[in-house]
Every structure is written in structure tokens, then in C-alpha cells.
Amino acid sequence: MDHLLEVKNLKTSFLTANGYLPAIDDVSFHVDRGETLGIVGESGCGKSVTSLSVMQLLSANGKIQEGTIAFNGRNLVGLSDGQMRKIRGKDIAMIFQEPMSSLNPVHKIGKQIAESLKIHTNLSLGDGKRRAIELLNLVGIPRAEQIVDEYPHRLSGGMRQRVMIAIAMACDPQLLIADEPTTALDVTIQAQILDLMRRLKQERQMGIMLITHDLGVVAEMCDRVVVMYAGKVVEQGAVRDIFRNPSHPYTIGLLNSIPKLKERQERLDSIPGTVPSIELMPAGCRFAARCPHATTRCVTAEPGLLPVSETHQVRCFLREGVAV
Q1: What is the mean pLDDT of the chain?
Q2: Which residues contact 234 (CB under 8 A, 6 or more apart)?
Q3: Which of 18, 158, 223, 302 is 20 to 30 Å apart from 174, CA to CA?
Q4: What residues contact residue 102 under an 8 Å CB cut-off, 6+ apart?
């Protein structure tokens, strides 16, 4: 089966005082049409760098050193800026984490939606505005005919996020990358945004790459999950695999840290320590310093991805010798 997006052995590095150091290393995953893939982990685990690598939107000091990013069978790594501009916004669209900083404060909503259409289609100014109104209606914004002429600061956080989705959907992308799309939104608005994304995916059979730290969102939205830690994939599998049989100590720690409403908890569970910086990356397993099961071997040697089942892999020495 041909995947919509297939990332293989991706290594993205950033220039530091000590030379280029990898922020993500040997990352592989795929997204199929009509599927939602969740990428989860703490801040600093490499989730956003992975999405920016796919979009080829790395900062000037970042570069892809190894690996391939195949979209519809075409490798995006090495394409020119001009070639990527034809793909970005049209075939692959992205919803950024903070809509207030992503929307231009001095341009009206309609103009910002029409800008994407102007780049990728031949719509006239009038047709662009009509299409902008259609898209605002599509994402559930009331009074679309008035909102199209408003500035971003006049809208609530939930409305601005809907505008970002409207911009992303303007050219009917095949792949939507959503980077923490519900951060800073209240629970009711978060549910509405997730329902909207789910409906658009079903109607248009697009793939979604959902980046989040919220495992509740993953359980509700995703078909498969990639768990990242310190720039590595430490576990991946179907949602049911990850939630019913978490096999990496980091994944178990993330699940245990979710508050349980049915139980009275004197204190919330947490994972001690912090994610290592790229300048201080350990030689062995990157989670060893925080892992309750770490051995001497974990400190000196790095485990590979081992099978838990046909649809489930984990990067941990604890799986060695365990029959699939």
C-alpha cells in the first residue's frame, strides 16, 4: 500500500556552538489517506521539529541531514523553495499552535484566506471573497459575511482557530498537519474544534498528522500513535495498543500522569527529571536517567525498535526475548 506521507530515518539538526546537533534522529512513520496519526510527547521531544521538517519550514540554522520525506511517492527533501511553495498550502496544509501570532493583525480575515487561494488558484478578487465566506461557513463561523471583513483581534481564540482551519482547508489539502490545535482553548471550544477536524477528515478523506501532548485528544481523535522522547520514536502503534498495552516506561509514565476522576488521588503521578537538551544528549537510552527500570546497559547502549505485535513497536531492552 502506498502511504500518503512516509517519513524514513529522518535526522534534523540545528547549528550550535558545538556544530550541528540532531533535534530528531532516525525518526520513521507514515500517514495514510483518511487516517489521523498522533505524535505525542513532552515539550522538547521533537514533535514540532518533525512537523516543520515535513513542511520544509526549518529556521535558518536547521537542516535535514539524513532521511527521506515522501509525499505521494515524491521525496520532499532537497526540493527548492519554489517547488515547496507549490505544495505548501495546496497539498499539505498546517494549523499552527497559536492563531493570534499566525494571523496577520493588519489584514482582514477574508484577505488572509483569499491569499492562499490567490497563490494556488486563478480566482478573482470577488470570487476569492465568496470562497472565503464559504470556508468560514464550512468551519462553523456564524455571520461569515460580516466576519470576513473583521480583523483577527476582534475574534475570540476559538474563532481565530477556526479561521486558521479555514485557511488550511482553502485549497482542499490531502494532508493536514495540526500542531497543538487546541492549546489555550477552553474544554467546550476544544471539543468543537476536534469535532470539526474529524468531520472534515471524513468528508474529504484527507490524512491528519496531529501533534499534541494531550493523550485524551489522542484517544478521541487518532487511529495510530507515535510517542517521541528526546528526538527519538520510543513507541508506536494503533491507539488500542498504546492505551491497552503501553510498553515503554515513558509511555506508561505519560498515561499514569493523567488525572483519574474515579479515584481520589492525594498527589498526581509524574515523571521525575526533564527532557535532555540536544547539547547534553546521553549516549545510551535517552530515557535512562528518568526510568525506574534502567540498568547499566541502558546507560551505555541504545536500544532499537522491537516488535510488541504486528502493529506495535517499542524502543526498550525490556522487550528483548519477549515472544511476539
Answers
A1: 90
A2: 227, 228, 248, 250, 251, 287, 314, 315, 316
A3: 158
A4: 96, 164
Q: Where are the alpha helices (DSSP H) in 205-276?
A: 215-221, 239-244, 249-256
The 10s digit of each residue's pLDDT in 38-67 is 999 998 899 999 999 999 999 999 999 999
DSSP single-letter state for residue 275 = P
* CA distances, 205 to each of 31, 197, 198, 299 (Å): 12, 11, 10, 44
* Nearest CA-CA partner of 231 in 5, 12, 6: 12
Q: What is the amino acid identity at position 203?
A: E
How, if at all, do strands 207-212 and 175-179 pair?
parallel
**Pairwise CA distance, residues 321 & 324, whole Å:** 9
Quote the CA–CA distance of 225 and 312 in Å, as a whole number.
10
CB-based contact 190:143 (threshold 8 Å): no
Residues 214-231 pLDDT 10s: 888 999 999 999 999 999
**How far is it, in rounded angstroms, from Cα 309 to Cα 48?**
28
Q: In the numeric block, which cell numbers belong to residue 106?
A: 493588519
